[in-house]
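Quick bug: Poly(A) RNA polymerase mitochondrial-like central palm domain-containing protein output formatted oddly.
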Amino acid sequence: MNGYSLFEHTLQNILRSVNPLEEDWSMRFQLIHELRAVVESIEILRGATVEPFGSFVSNLFTRWGDLDISIELPNGSYISSAGKKYKLSLLGDVLKALRARGGCRKLQFITNARVPILKFQGNYNISCDISINNLSGQMKSKILYWINMIDGRFRDMVLLVKEWAKAHNVNDSKTGTLNSYSLSLLVVFHFQTCVPAILPPLKEIYPGNMVDDLTGPYELVRTPVPPAILIPFVFSSISSVVLISSTILYREFLPEETNFSIRLLHERSVH
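Here's what came back:
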């Protein structure tokens, strides 16, 4: 097995170990179903909807990835803009309902964050973050999902970079490092600046104004896949993408014998 084959084999092994199985999807759908029942039991939240977002929606989550949930308040055809104090009150009601229902562990109510969050771990050992009217999170998730549909290598690269970041303790915004969304944007930029480019400019994927759309009709948040992603782009080969990305991965993330092979491949590719 030559150096490149060893590198490719190692990356595929990592991806196989982190990719969610069918049961991982099923457990998250079941957790969403249970949360909807909890929300429906709260009088003041009758009519609200439970909407997943984040890596689960953009299909960029690993087997042990958490689940982000936004409780969307009814407000006709326009996006509700509940204040922080009201959101804290509603999350407090959800906290009481979860405690009364039982089965939740590690309940944590984060009130001093810019976006108040209720965290807990459910019956399936899946960490869950609940927020109120997190439309910006839903929009970001949808854009990443659209990007994911352009080229499957984007998803593979995001998963690899996230695992690398976790291995080096640089994937936690609470400690001043990068969150998963920021890491995804780094991969987007890398794929946009490859020669030839793999991804188009974001304005070609989402031509609208996100600020306006987040305060306008709710239907805009649920827009279908834009036609832009159906436009064929000139893709670079997967081998060149992997080799360029090896500058990020080879130092400590992979075994030493693989590191040596990757260094040789990278040196040859840049000379």
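Actually, after a second look the formatting is fine. DSSP finds eleven helices and five strands in the chain. Closing.
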